[in-house]
Amino acid sequence: MPESLFKAIIIAAAVIFALIFCAVVIPALIAEPDVVGAFAAGFVNPYSSGYSSDVLACWAILAAWIAYEARALGIRHGWICAVLGIIPGVAVGFALYLLMRMRQLNGREV
C-alpha cells in the first residue's frame, strides 16, 4: 500500500471517529455537564463495561509505547497523542501518533 494512501486512511478514520464522537457526546454534555458521570456511563452494563475496559487498556498500551519510543527512537511530542487519546479518544491519539512517527522516522536512516 502506498504511504500516501495509508496516511489518508489513518486521517479519514480519525476524522470520522472524532465527528461521531462529537455528534454523540457534545449534545449530551451540554444537556448534562457532568464529566465524571459521563465517564461512569461507559460502565452501565456488562457490554459497555467490556468496551470501555478495552478502550482504557488500549490507551495504557499506547501511552507505554509512546514513552518507550520517545526513549528508544527519539520520537518527539508523543505526549500530545497520549492526551488526545483521553479526549476525544484513542482512535485520534493513535492515528496522530502513527503519522507523527512516520514523519519523524522518514527523515532519518532506519
Structure described in brief:
InterPro entries: DUF2834. By secondary structure, the protein is mostly helical. The protein has helices at about 5-30, 35-40, 45-70, 80-85, 90-105.
What does this structure look like?
- This protein is an all-alpha fold.
- The protein has one domain (3-107).
- The chain contains 5 helices and no strands.
- It has helices at residues 3-31, 35-40, 46-72, 78-86, 90-106.
- Helix 3 runs antiparallel to helix 4, helix 3 runs parallel beside helix 5 and helix 4 packs antiparallel against helix 5.
Structural class by secondary-structure content: mainly alpha
| Radius of gyration, in angstroms, nearest whole number | 16 Å
Distance between the termini: 20 Å
Low-confidence stretches: none
Count structural domains.
1
**Tally of extended strands?**
0
Total helices: the number is: 5
Q: Shape from CA axes?
A: globular
> What average pLDDT do the residues reach?
92
String of helices and strands: HHHHH
Helix percent band: over 70%
Biggest sheet details:
none
Strand content: under 5%
Pfam families: DUF2834 (PF11196)
Keywords: Membrane, Transmembrane, Transmembrane helix
InterPro entries: DUF2834
Organism: Parasphingorhabdus halotolerans
Furnish the topology, listing elements before pairings.
Blueprint: H1 3-31, H2 35-40, H3 46-72, H4 78-86, H5 90-106
Helix pairs in contact: 1-5, 3-4, 3-5, 4-5
Protein name: DUF2834 domain-containing protein
Pfam families: DUF2834
InterPro entries: DUF2834
Give short descriptive properties of this protein.
transmembrane helix; 110 residues; membrane; DUF2834; globular; mainly alpha; 5 helices; single chain
